[in-house]
Amino acid sequence: ASSLARIMDFWSMEMSNLSWACAPRGFADAPLLSAIASQSRAKLPYFRAQDLSNLVWSFASLAVEHPPLLAAIAAAALRNLTVYDTQAMTSIAWALDVMRDEAALDGYLDAAFAHFAETATPTPRTSGMSWVELGSAALARPTLPGAPVLAARFGDELGRPVLALLKSLASPASHAEPGQNHGAAFRMLADYAPRHRVPHLGLPFTRRALANLGVALHQPSSAGEYPSAELREECWLVGIW
Question: What is the pLDDT of residue 50?
Fold first, then answer.
């Protein structure tokens, strides 16, 4: 209640921190979040990249729909994309996808793909998670400008190294001592994932990796969208997109 009464006096960081504090607790108080959205829209030019990504992440995590705020955030992100770090870029992409704002997401990704491909560094300096999140978006939207370049960089940075590890895990070099060989492959993968900050591989790459390893997968019809909006939402909720 005290925050709601004083929110007109809050600076951008304070509003971002307040929404960030609500999200992990599932505290979706409608009057408070509406006030945060209204005041944030008025002060978006003063939001730093981290504040903006925290704000949009919080609303998305709470599943609070506020189209005017989302549209304003997407526009602000596009204007300031060149000063964003890779984590801020991926957080905003995540939130736009979770909120199913396809128009805003595609417009944002047009620019984000190119900027990420230019500025991202090898893991772990740029986290593997950031590579997976935007790399997955590029693999899922191959017709967007910049997607082929980013998908290729994702393949060089994570795709091929991880696939080689998975192949060694699936097909040990010697079958004389399969337990020992699998153990070595597991240890290599267990070392690689935290060192490169890769908690998961994302749905699009996982699907391709399984196909490469010979696992038969259902192929969606060309007319249908893959992955569907429902499947993307489920993956976001469990954290494997």
Answer: 80
Q: Give the Cα separation of 60 and 43 in Å (integer).
A: 19
The per-residue pLDDT for 177 is 55
Q: Are 131 and 120 in contact (CB under 8 A)?
A: yes
Task: Indicate if the pLDDT at residue 63 is higher than 70.
Answer: yes
CA distance 84 to 96: 16
The full set of domain ranges for the chain reads 1-119, 125-240
Three state DSSP letters for the chain: CHHHHHHHHCCHHHHHHHHHHHHHHCCCCHHHHHHHHHHHHHHHHHCCHHHHHHHHHHHHHCCCCCHHHHHHHHHHHHHCHHHCCHHHHHHHHHHHHHCCCHHHHHHHHHHHHHHHHHHCCCCCCCCHHHHHHHHHHHHHCCCCCCHHHHHHHHHHHHHHHHHHHHHHHHCCCCCCCHHHHHHHHHHHHHHHHHHCCCCCCCHHHHHHHHHHCCCCCCCCCCCCCCCCHHHHHHHHHHCCC
Q: Looking at this protein, which amino acid is placed at residue 1?
A: A
Tokens representing 239 are: 């954290």
Tens digit of each residue's pLDDT (9 = 90 or more) over 130-170: 898 888 888 888 898 889 999 999 999 998 998 888 888 77
Task: Note the pLDDT tens digit of each residue in 112-124.
Answer: 998 998 889 998 8
87 near 49, Cβ under 8 Å? no
**Which tokens sit at 184?**
């070595």
Q: What is the pLDDT of residue 91?
A: 80
